[in-house]
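> tool_call: predict_assembly(chains=two)
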Amino acid sequence: MNLFRFILLFVFVMPAVVPAQEPSSHRFESEHGAFIADSVASGLSQPSAIEFLPDGRAFVLQRDIGEITLIDFRSGEQVNIGNMPKMLKFSDSGLHDIELHPDFAENGWIYISYSEGEEVHSTVVFDRLKIKDKAVSERERIFSADAFSENSYHYGGRIQFSGGYVYLTVGDRQHRDKVQDRSNHAGSIVRLHDDGRVPADNPFIGVEDERDQPRPELWTLGHRNPQGLFVHPETGELWENEHGPRGGDELNLIKKGANYGWPEISFGFEYDGGPIGKGIVHEEGMEQLVWVYVPSIAPSDLVIYQGEAFPAWKGSFLIGSLAFVHLNRLVLRDGAVVAEERLASGLLGRIRSIAVDADGYIYLGSDGGDIWRLRPE
Amino acid sequence: MNLFRFILLFVFVMPAVVPAQEPSSHRFESEHGAFIADSVASGLSQPSAIEFLPDGRAFVLQRDIGEITLIDFRSGEQVNIGNMPKMLKFSDSGLHDIELHPDFAENGWIYISYSEGEEVHSTVVFDRLKIKDKAVSERERIFSADAFSENSYHYGGRIQFSGGYVYLTVGDRQHRDKVQDRSNHAGSIVRLHDDGRVPADNPFIGVEDERDQPRPELWTLGHRNPQGLFVHPETGELWENEHGPRGGDELNLIKKGANYGWPEISFGFEYDGGPIGKGIVHEEGMEQLVWVYVPSIAPSDLVIYQGEAFPAWKGSFLIGSLAFVHLNRLVLRDGAVVAEERLASGLLGRIRSIAVDADGYIYLGSDGGDIWRLRPE
């Protein structure tokens, strides 16, 4: 063996003997003490939502392959739910969210959102379903957004229950021209009864001015791609985070009938650096954001933490970061962000989903394929 | 030469042929475009303040060696001012700030703050002086803080003029027990006429309750180590940032007679992780902070940017970070921080002072010994 071949061996062959298995735990420092992230499930594809069942198991969505996977984190058992609806699985389409009905223990209803249509003509739809013997046994359409696009981006799709209603987010589908047009659902949050009926006191019902004829389902408008939605456990307020343009990722307090300004006003810039819309951040009649990430972190899921395991984080807003691969913690007081901390940077991968179990342990779904469980050291 | 000696040569000798001179420019990305930092002065020791003169030259303080250095950034000429007052130069003591009187062009007054006393018994004092032929020609004591300590930490020492008054910050001198006691000046901001007289409408004048007899110079209390102080160019509000405990670095809007809570209330923790004071963040009669850095960045100087060179940063709060070695940019709206950006991370060193010249270029004094001038790429 000559030297050249020896070097080739070293460069190209040696790495292959390194174990393929990454360590399944990482230790991180935080302002309020160290914590450990343990991998409690792996091999998952784009886990876009984690929803705990009363028995401690959890549904995990695998977005791009369109599977609801029932996982027992104690035994490690994973079961894919059968008889799933037909959906589009392409680019950013797939399964977006899953949420149990507040009375799930009595009625068994599970709400999901997913992309429906063809690669060149799709929208986001919301169903409720029941599961029996590890398969969908019953299913009803709750809402189909009039937010069709020839591309497969910006679906939104988050689901939250509050005060007897269900709130659903719809992305702008990269059709900015449709967002301020209230005669479709692109770039909005809609409010419905749990069976899909439209509440009679929705804000745009009966509004027919020179501008357009608004859809009755609309609750707010002017959003871009809302991927986080959470009801504050103490105040009952609805909070939302959305992917803005470059430098314009927003946290918003959702108010009935409000217009969040996209694409007219934004803190962000076009990816080439130019201004967006009117290049302004404030306009009469449009709602102001509470927080904007500069630079953009690509915020995913949102949870307002109330658990016991991390007492110092009680009341904190936990937001997953796809682009900056960390768990973002915001501290709010009197409706304003007063502190931001970036937790678990780097090692856990792109954080796509967040959930908290009954003991307050935090679960993060990562594009690396793992569900990471956080516990204090 | 055998192989071993060859390797030794490579490892230990080769680096010596690398030029000792570091590059004098760095390029950084930001949300609003790339910018360049050029070293425009070097060899300075702890540059704790930069103050431009009308002719474009600047006074730079060298904290630990107690020098006022007059620098012409165009020619590079540096001149140390002679006939300086005697001061303590030890640990964190030395020269803290320099500020021109608003009518400097007419009256020639320059205000400085520095540590006075012995290593085991010192405080912070404020003088005004005139400079002639590169030496102090005249000097008057404006204020000597009753904030003596046996250690050499937490002096504060920032100076700002506003509305005909001069505002001065005094650190807590690591005597927490003195901060809520209004009969001394530790942990306070004081307000004086420009000649040192006490304004008749200062908030604690005439207040003599069961608690203590407050000093008439006090404007606010409950501060820890305020190293940033700046009058908002548009609103006239006085803003302050201070080194808190671990996880408790604060940005505050300074209001007449307010109590900022140290050490009773704080977002921070003891360095061993335990609670501070009552372990609470809110108490009746104490002012709430606007922003807290988690984790602590060790904020130094504060400037509210109004220059032309970086139009996207207009109105931003620029704060130097000693611990996290970057320039921190906060975006405020309606009195709340809505965005934070970390600029020029790492390469420029611990940022101790900030100034803006007439064209809007930003100057950063670094513990690496350089003054860095920022310009858009």
